[in-house]
Write a structure and sequence with these properties.
Order of helices and strands: EEHHHHHHHHHHHHHHH
Number of domains: 2
Strand content: under 5%
Strand order of the largest sheet: 1-2
CATH topology of the largest domain: Growth Hormone, Chain: A
Largest sheet: 2 strands, antiparallel
CATH superfamily of the largest domain: MFS general substrate transporter like domains
Structural class: mainly alpha
Length: 406
Amino acid sequence: MTRGLIPVPGPKRVLAAATFVNMIGKGLFMTGAALFFTRSVGIPVAQVGLGLGIAALIGLVAGIPVGHLADRRGPRGVYRIALVVQAFALAALLLVHDFRWLVVCMSLVELANSAGTAAKGPLTRAVGAPNPTHFRSYLRALNNIAAGIGALTAGVVVQLDTRAAYVALILGNAASFLVCAALASRLPALPPVEAAKGSGPWIALKDKPYLLLTGLDGIMSIQTQVLIFALPLWIIGHTTAPRWFVGAGVAVNTVLVVCLQVRASRGIDGNLAAGRTVRRAGVAFLLALALFAASGGVPRWVAVTVIAAGVIVYTVGELWHTAASFELSFGLAPAHAQGQYSGLYGIGQGLSSAVGPPLLGTVCIGFGWPGWLAMGVVFLLAGQLMPSVVTWSDRTRDRTVLGTGT
């Protein structure tokens, strides 16, 4: 697929370039958005957090209907429209002056983001054929590099801490979406896949195994908040490890993901293999969280060693879970409803981002080491259930596609 880090010329290179540019903009925004609203606009921190949470939940409703539209009209056009809408919605943030308008504008941003994600699913599957999981893993590694560049650039903006700098950050993010839309126009137009005879318009919502799979994956996806939310709070408030180790842990994780995400996807060549891989990921998460729990109240060198080991084990679990999740999201969805299923799958992952911080804060930080172990057990159980659900989905998929139920 690649020569070094760059795909060979063609649709894969175009989509990779679009993704890279877009993720630089997202890295800018993720790092500087809260400070823009608090430092430049003057909205209180508590209101900013509440507004962003409300907008994220509102945004989830767009995934399934827009995914269905992408299935029926072709994903490229829908994806481009979503990118353009998101660009203008982001630019409109410069007009925000209070909590109400923050919720309105950020809801538009999140709705467009959810729509774009749903439309991009079938696009990635088609462009990445014959091994879309391998290609999507490559895109994730590329995303980490781009997000790092965006975050470093946002650091300059935060250091300047001026209205002009924050305006440049917002406009730079909006521009990245327009560039991404322009690049996406160079992708081949994909005709919609004809729906199976007798299938209903909302088959994803009738697919019981896939609904359960989405829920389990959503639980597993709470792990994405461990390293960026729970662990920093734990290191600073409950261990003797130096504060700078917070950044070091994230850096180690980022480097490992960039280097190993594609390799982690090898061998995951079917739904059953993906289900077994998620089961291994659950074991890795339990071990990693147990190591984090053990870092409290011990000498500094022990804390640093244990946390470092935990970050490495956690990253292995993250690599396995991500690669397997890619395979399942594609492999268990019928060809004619990839967008709709992609939108449904995104709801589980979106809810995990909304629920993760308060849940981890209450359980892991509030209860200490027993809380870390409890969350590890939750991940373990979700991972252990996944292969059975995959088997159920494989067994009933034909009847579900035909609209006869499960």
